[in-house]
DNA sequence: TTGTAAGCGTTATCAG
DNA sequence: CTGATAACGCTTACAA
């Protein structure tokens, strides 16, 4: 009976004069189907406004039409950008985005992820750094037979399972830029231990100095945690130094904004007294004054690509354009950098 | 057979020597169950690590274990805060959060929401402003029989379906504060037309002036759209005025940050030459220099409460503490406000 | 190329 | 209080 509630596959089958299975084949775009049969069924579907029940399909197919986003990230803007990118790729599909923040550090993290994946039977899942850097999440997905993509600051996995940026390279360039302007005492606010991105960015920083034959005292490197507060503390430590650094590279925008904050609080002027470069190119970088020179991290593109990788089986062969896996970051020149002014 | 794959309700039933239905009753915390039977079943569940299959439950129950978040919001930080609050409430439940951005303005918006709700059969859904202000989404949820909560800047619905803040009141207080410091030419950067929050905040602004018997030229009100860019344009318009306003209230932090940006770009000093008050108390307010006086909008608490309202049936009567519906905002005093200095 | 029968794992009905 | 049986709506064998 169709009169009651929403039409089901049975209604379609009956009205089209075919079997349920044939309707099912139409829904699932089975290739072995007579064109006229398909047309007939599609006509009925359109006419009565039939929409397949996702719960029933999920039960039979053993997977949901959901793409998961697993993260444990201190940066809100980054997570939002990732969501935006993924949703862009998923637009006009039947897939939905399910968000799952987790507690790295928790001893049950891996079990939590496993429970989440097993329970929801996701179609695919995307991991953000730093969780994505944990090799065990990849193992877990392979064991569970679930599609996954990891985002990272360096290549961690095969192209199918990875979207990466070249953090070390672009930071090296950024620091070289500082050097070319005449800066010699350059401070680094490093990211948290255990983050691959933090390591890569630091590596780029050190490579640039090494290539220029410059050896800096260890004191010019301060530890941060990618948060504003830790950035503030690190910047204060650096600015207390004597002689003071003439430029600071902060491993993300949040800490770069904190550096600007710390400098202005002391009555310093940026970029006259201090040049600052950040990393991420999140909104705050261009919103603060002076607008901040920073590395543009193409997160939205990476996230979109990641989602497309996850959906590649679904879209079928016709759309089998290989999604890129490496997304070059670029330095965005704004107003927080100038040649050093000795005073 | 349990050897293959994950244990099912049948395995539990067999091992416990009861029927499937009895196990089902245990899972669903049915009150009419013999204590010893329950204990026996629970023991088996724990022993073999049985986890109910959500897809099958969804099919039988006609609803998923998902809470939806529907929004069309220009402010990333706000959406993240909402997610954080909701997820906090959902922690340690079997519910997951599914995020659905929509395109207000699209002629198919309501149909899109309907399709989403019907397809996913959510357990409950939360609407953010400005979509939440549309009475038709509430009608839709009632028609579909789906739990919903709306967030807004004024009371739009019954307590069960609403979390609201008192924007007009707190803005009135904020502007009175400006007046008490001696400001007389106060500019307003208004929010977008059609947003209830924009209207409420403007109302508070106008009430404060009216109560003080001050009549301001229409030119001191500039239109914004809650984005940085529109805030910048509006601030420039205001700062081009002669005489210039000595203080500006911006209807959200993003536009307040833009106001600061515009002022500093002109070489003005804040708060000496211009006092600024924002609204939201998002991260940027405290991160920029000088730290910005703003209205703290308790979004995280509101979102947590909203999710709890959605889950109230699930938690059962024992936890039936009535969640609040009104969340007072408060003015946070920072460094962007000072008495006017005539120069 | 299409159809038939048997699940997928759970809950509702209604009897005991 | 508990259990047998029929849904829930779709897909996967396996035939035809």
From TrEMBL, chains A, B:
Coiled coil: none annotated. Keywords: DNA-binding, Transcription, Transcription regulation. One of its GO terms (molecular function) is transcription cis-regulatory region binding. SMART domains: HTH_LACI. Residues 7-61 form the HTH lacI-type domain. It comes from the Bacteria. This is LacI family transcriptional regulator. It comes from Sphingomonas xinjiangensis.
């Amino acid at each position: 009976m169709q009169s009651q509630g929403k039409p089901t596959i049975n209604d379609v089958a009956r009205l089209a004069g075919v079997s349920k299975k044939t309707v099912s084949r139409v829904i699932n775009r089975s290739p072995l189907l007579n064109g006229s049969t398909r047309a007939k069924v599609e006509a009925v579907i359109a006419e009565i406004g039939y929409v397949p029940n996702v719960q029933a399909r999920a039960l039979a197919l053993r997977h949901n039409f959901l793409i998961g986003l697993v993260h444990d990230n201190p940066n809100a803007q980054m997570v939002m950008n990732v969501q935006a990118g993924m949703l862009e790729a998923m637009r006009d599909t039947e897939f939905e985005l399910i968000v799952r923040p987790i507690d790295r550090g928790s001893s049950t993290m891996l079990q939590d992820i496993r429970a989440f994946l097993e329970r929801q039977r996701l179609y695919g899942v995307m991991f953000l750094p730093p969780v994505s850097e944990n090799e065990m999440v990849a193992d877990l997905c392979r064991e569970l037979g679930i599609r996954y993509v990891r985002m990272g600051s360096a290549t961690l996995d095969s192209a199918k399972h990875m979207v990466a940026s070249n953090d070390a390279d672009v930071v090296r360039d950024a620091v070289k830029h500082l050097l070319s302007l005449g800066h010699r005492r350059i401070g680094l606010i490093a990211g948290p231990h255990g983050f691959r991105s933090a390591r890569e960015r630091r590596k780029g920083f050190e490579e640039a100095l090494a290539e220029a034959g410059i050896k800096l005292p260890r004191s010019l490197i301060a530890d941060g945690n990618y948060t504003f507060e830790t950035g503030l503390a690190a910047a204060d430590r650096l600015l207390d130094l004597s002689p003071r650094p003439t430029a600071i590279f902060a491993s993300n925008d949040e800490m770069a904004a904190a550096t600007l904050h710390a400098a202005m609080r002391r009555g310093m002027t940026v970029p006259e007294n201090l040049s600052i470069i950040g990393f991420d190119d999140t909104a705050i970088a261009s919103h603060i004054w002076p607008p901040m020179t920073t590395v543009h991290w193409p997160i939205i593109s990476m996230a979109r690509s990641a989602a497309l990788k996850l959906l590649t089986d679904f879209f079928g062969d016709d759309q089998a354009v290989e999604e890129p896996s490496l997304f070059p970051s670029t330095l965005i020149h704004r107003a927080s950098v100038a040649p050093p002014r000795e005073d």
